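Same chain as my last thread, 51 residues:
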Amino acid sequence: MRTVAPAAFIEFKRWLADAALHRPEPKRRRDRRQADIVQALLDEGLLPAEG
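reply #2:
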């Protein structure tokens, strides 16, 4: 299945968590957690670098 590149997903989710201050804190925490999970999968070689 084709999807957005993992690096783009991580960058966007970190932006949401850090810069989109209008978002509720629970959603910002979820965004950080999702970025961290995808980054860990990339670091472990479990995802390709491009989507």
